[in-house]
Amino acid sequence: MLTLHRAALLIADPAAPAAPATADGAVLVDGALVAWVGPYADRPDADARQREWPGLLVPGLLNPYGACQLERRYHPDPREELGAEPLVLDVSDERRGGSARRGLQRMLGHGTTAVAGPFAHPAVRTAVARSGLAAVPGDGADGGLDPLAGRSLAEAVHRPLRAGGPADFAVFAAGSAAELERSGAGCCLATVLGGRLLYRGR
Prior knowledge:
Blueprint: E1 2-10, E2 22-30, E3 33-39, E4 49-59, E5 61-63, H1 66-71, H2 93-108, E6 112-116, H3 122-131, E7 134-136, H4 153-156, E8 169-172, H5 177-183, H6 188-194, E9 197-201
Parallel strand pairs: 1-4, 5-6, 6-7
Antiparallel strand pairs: 1-2, 2-3, 4-8, 8-9
């Protein structure tokens, strides 16, 4: 089924100077693939359901700290009353699997669609495989849940949005459409950093 995702501001490829932000942009998705990307006014004539988002649509983000967050940190279950922040705890494989699942859910809340390993624990590998996130090689760097912390949007993007490519993207709440149009690409990073995830497409 075709779905047209329309957003107040679209950045299909933050690393490409020749591909600026598009006010009132759209992404046409066919199953798991992007069929078209561009200004909403230029959308192809297609029998597609439409979803309208008031914020910023960007490619899905890569969290390079997956090994740190999923294997060297423990994400407490709220019932444990250990707080919400990740802890450094040595736990059983069973608890490690539950922690990894909770950590992955928190990463999803930051627009993550890919996570970097390596993952040594079988329970963590299983949790990642079942999460729907892409697992990519990494260096095991120490870092947090937010892939944008200390990184530019261009650095944090897993892969750009292109016709024929995977429909991996995130939509963040932001200011009004008029504010987004005035800000242009120059303020997009601040917009994302202050935004709340509305939707993650995959």
